[in-house]
């Protein structure tokens, strides 16, 4: 797409003008927006960019390694892999209220990001993957620019506190344009087409208390479910698909024995912008096959349900 190619060159020029020879830091989440922002910044200012990838222990199976490998090894970006799993899971221990969980994660994320950013010599700019719809949303909700309510990965308020200036090269773009730009920058299409993943990660797919055991089970079940969706060629038809592990054990039978394991819920929705959503009408064959695979392949789960709530009245996530 030559239009996006031209846009890319202009955006790169603008970044160079703004940043000069100063250092830039960026929180890399592995999501499409921050990934495209990082790739664009890298093309514009090369090694003046350092990305911080915060591993809060609430990521999907192999997520941290895959994201870090792609940006560090494949695309040659400077990436700090902040392994803060013990910190996050420690502070979340015993917490079951959804808003409390979100607040803890948001606060720790900012603390951790700040700690790593402070170690980067001479950083003057903070890059964010803010999109045009985020700008509109934040203006209508808070009256101020550049403070997004969407995600703690858009670290609102932090730039001022740290004395950093913002670089937001995607501010004029919609999601589909960001994807086109990502393509132009050489990000693999499997990466660009990924479903959105929330900042608090698996925490909001583990209603109630989070334990390492539940997270481990959830990761495995989610990987099987996504594999099923990909095998059936349905991934790109779906806005978001994931497993939630329920805070309840139920009785089952396996062989001659009784089991007493966790139940889980599969979620899959179609949506245009995440504001409203319909549940995805999987065939009964698909659902049956997926349930069988999860129960056979994931120790700790003995019951699978499918969530057929649309939004509204439900939300996409379980918390
Ligand atoms: P809900 O569950 O509110 O989700 O219908 C709508 C979209 O927003 C994502 N989501 C979040 N993203 N931080 C995020 O970065 C959050 O706290 C959060 N909560 C929900 C959700 O994955 C869906 O795409």
TrEMBL record:
Gene Ontology terms: cellular component: cytosol
Enzyme class label: ligase
Keywords on record: ATP-binding, Glutamine amidotransferase, GMP biosynthesis, Ligase, Nucleotide-binding, Purine biosynthesis
GO MF, one annotated term: ATP binding
Residue ranges of every copy of the GMPS ATP-PPase domain listed in the record: 2-194
Keyword ATP-binding in record: yes
Pathway given in the UniProt record: Purine metabolism; GMP biosynthesis; GMP from XMP (L-Gln route): step 1/1
Residues that hold ATP according to the record: 29-35
Enzyme Commission number: 6.3.5.2
Catalytic activity, reaction form: XMP + L-glutamine + ATP + H2O = GMP + L-glutamate + AMP + diphosphate + 2 H(+)
Function: Catalyzes the synthesis of GMP from XMP.
Subunit architecture: Homodimer.
Name by which UniProt lists this protein: GMP synthase [glutamine-hydrolyzing]
């Amino acid at each position: 797409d030559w239009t996006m190619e031209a846009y890319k060159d202009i955006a790169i020029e603008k970044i160079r003008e703004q940043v000069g020879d100063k250092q830039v830091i960026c929180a890399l989440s592995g999501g499409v927006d921050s990934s495209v922002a990082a790739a664009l910044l890298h093309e514009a200012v090369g090694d003046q960019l350092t990305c911080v990838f915060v591993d809060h222990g609430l990521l999907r199976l192999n997520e941290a390694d895959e994201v870090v490998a792609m940006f560090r090894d494949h695309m040659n970006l400077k990436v700090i892999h902040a392994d803060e799993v013990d910190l996050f899971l420690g502070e979340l221990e015993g917490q079951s209220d959804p808003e409390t969980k979100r607040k803890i994660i948001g606060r720790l994320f900012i603390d951790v990001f700040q700690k790593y950013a402070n170690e980067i010599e001479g950083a003057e700019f903070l890059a964010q993957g803010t999109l045009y719809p985020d700008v509109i949303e934040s203006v209508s909700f808070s009256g101020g620019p550049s403070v997004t309510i969407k995600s703690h990965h858009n670290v609102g308020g932090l730039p001022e506190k740290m004395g950093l200036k913002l670089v937001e090269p995607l501010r004029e773009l919609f999601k589909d344009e960001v994807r086109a730009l990502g393509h132009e920058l050489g990000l693999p299409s499997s990466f660009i087409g990924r479903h959105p993943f929330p900042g608090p990660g698996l925490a909001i797919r583990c209603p109630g208390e989070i334990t390492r055991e539940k997270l481990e089970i959830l990761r495995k079940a989610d990987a099987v479910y996504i594999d099923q969706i990909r095998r059936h060629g349905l991934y790109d038809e779906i806005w978001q698909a994931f497993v939630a592990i329920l805070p309840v054990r139920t009785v089952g039978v396996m062989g001659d024995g009784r089991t007493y394991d966790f139940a889980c819920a599969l979620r899959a929705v179609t949506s245009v912008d995440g504001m409203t959503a319909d549940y995805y009408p999987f065939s009964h064959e698909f659902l049956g096959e997926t349930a069988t695979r999860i129960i056979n392949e994931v120790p700790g789960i003995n019951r699978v349900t499918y969530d057929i709530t649309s939004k509204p009245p439900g939300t996409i996530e379980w918390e």
